[in-house]
Each structure stands twice: as structure tokens, then as C-alpha cells.
Amino acid sequence: MPSVQGLSKAQANYRKAENPKFSCGECKFMFPRLSIGGCRYVRGVIHNSDICDEFKPRRSQP
User: Fold this and answer.
1) Are 27 and 57 in contact (CB under 8 A)?
2) pLDDT tens track for 17-29
3) Bridge partners of 46?
């Protein structure tokens, strides 16, 4: 597990998501959950339509 904002976008393989269901906007590490925000592990501005290798889905609501 990387340190808090310890990864550059290149290290995290940050890129455009091919599937919106697997994108930063659906990841538990993105905050706030808007079109542009931040990430717990990746430095810089994060777009909800992108993805990186640290992606973990939010828990689904029952």
C-alpha cells in the first residue's frame, strides 16, 4: 500500500478509464466524489473519468 499521496501519476499508471464503472469516480480513494478532486494515494488533480493501478471500488450499497 503506497503512502498518502506518495505516488506520481506516472508511478500509478494514471490514465483515461475505458469503462466508467472502473474509474476514479467509483474508487474509494477519490475525494470529493465530483468531476475533479483528489486521491488518497496519487498526487495532483484527479478527474473522475480517469483510473490508475490503485483503483479499489467503493462498497456497494445493499
Assistant:
1) yes
2) 999 999 999 999 9
3) 37
